Amino acid sequence: MKQQRIMVSATVITTIASLITGYLIGKYTSQNIDVPVVQKNIPQKEEEDEDSEDELDILPEGQIDVNKYDNFKLTLVVRSDLGMTKGKIAAQCGHATLACYKAAKKVNPLLLRAWETSGQAKVALKCDSEDKLLELQAIALSLGLPAQTIQDAGRTQIAPGSRTVLGVGPGPAELIDRVTGSLKLL
Predict the structure, then answer these.
(1) Contact 165, 99 (CB under 8 A)
(2) Of 19, 73, 106, 170, most Cβ neighbours within 10 A?
(3) Residues ≥6 apart with Cβ < 8 Å to 112
């Protein structure tokens, strides 16, 4: 009997401690509360440098009305003719995703938010040439979609300046399918 009381007490204490911990974690990770961040000798860049257009391709000029759509995604078109390893493809797709994110943030933050809140869908596709990559980019830009190509630095497997991946989106799946809908999955 005494052992049962001890076990019940331990369970109650653990439950209370868990609730308090969860509450505190939620409180300090909320978007509405500024939590001080300690940085150790990290050089501060101006915000303008962080979102510099120097590293981005051409940006779309128009704004897509997100209220007209309910399904959003980002596609990553990988050149299959370069013979990249899986690791290289993954790294290049990461670069393309980040470039598209920055482009969308600069051009249409509401579109970016719609994609983020709808699950951040990403689809990897393939094409067989740089010319096809550039053609797809032009079509995407004409529809007002963010479309960023990634040029490799040439330090490992690929010749410097080679375009490896095209990111299209984030954007309405309906519009993105008009650009990349005929491509095969990677």
Answers:
(1) no
(2) 170
(3) 101, 104, 105, 170
- What is the three-class DSSP state of 71? coil
Beta-carbon neighbour count of residue 28 at 10 Å? 10
Longest dimension (CA), the chain: 79
Say which residues have a Cβ less than 8 Å from residue 57's Cβ, sequence separation at least 6: 99, 103, 137, 147, 148, 149
| pLDDT value at residue 61 | 74
Residues 60, 107 contacting (CB under 8 angstroms): yes
Q: Report whether 59 contacts 103 (CB < 8 A).
A: yes
Closest by CA to 107, choosing from 58, 67, 49, is 58
Q: Which ranges of the chain have pLDDT less than 70?
A: 1-12, 14-54
At 56 the pLDDT is 82
Answer whether 0.90 is exceeded by the pTM: no
Cα distance between residue 127 and residue 172, in whole Å: 21
Identify the pLDDT of residue 118.
Answer: 95
* Omega before 36 within 30 of 0, i.e. cis: no
